[in-house]
Amino acid sequence: MISTGAGGLDELLNGGLLAENMHLVFGEAESGKTTLAIQCAVNCARIGYKTIYIDTEGTFSPKRLAQIASENVEEIASCIILARPSTFREQGAILDKLDEYVTEKVGLIVVDTVTALYSSELGGEKKKTFKLNRELSRQMAYLAQIIKGHKVPALITSQVRSVFIADEISVEPPARRVLDFWSDVVISLRFTSQSGVVRAVLEKHPRRLLPQSCFLRIGQEGIVDYKYVG
Ligand SMILES: Nc1ncnc2c1ncn2[C@@H]1O[C@H](COP(=O)(O)OP(=O)(O)OP(=O)(O)O)[C@@H](O)[C@H]1O
Ligand SMILES: [Mg+2]
Predict the structure, then answer these.
(1) pLDDT tens figures, 185-219
(2) Ligand nearest to the Cα of 32, by number
(3) Domain 7-225 CATH class label
(4) Domain chopping of the chain, boundaries
């Protein structure tokens, strides 16, 4: 079990990131996905385990890691194995090799984000959707198999795009059905009227009644609980 570092969010998750479970976190740009992913990697390091961190947007930064870790930064940094695919195919190739890298020292696998390279490969070409969804599904199936075999949790993130649902504009991740199918736990991060404060909504969980949510504040030191007075 890996703590997210925010008590309210851990509570929502029945304790934190659970081994063998795929956790999907989605939200708009700047909603805190990367901050949360780095914070989970820091907490994983604090209990003595390594994180395999697949950074598809080049947004993992040592500076942000240092802010969130605040102490023992070098030791914590040495626990993070960074991979930076630049195409969707490369992302698949890295996932295919995971079995070689996931030793008993690894406690978490992060993919931030799982859909950025998918989306850039798709461009605007709808005809590619079927093929790309099949490849995304293959990658997710393989990751699911790895986390079950090695008994570690996975944290995957996705940005959202606007979609029309019953004449209303809503936001959801691309290939939502594929991601939902393979995710055991789904959390969306939504902006609130207060700057720097997001609401984390639990949208799927095997052992919790839904929907439930908590408020989080994103700052220099990472993500912390927030008591919302709306
Ligand atoms: N050093 C910092 N001090 C304070 N706030 C920061 C710092 N670094 C980032 N933030 C803020 O944290 C918020 C969340 O950023 P984060 O990168 O985690 O979002 P994200 O959901 O990953 O966005 P994206 O989809 O663009 O990757 C942003 O508002 C950002 O400005
Ligand atoms: Mg990000």
Answers:
(1) 999 999 999 999 999 999 999 998 888 999 999 99
(2) 1
(3) alpha beta
(4) 7-225
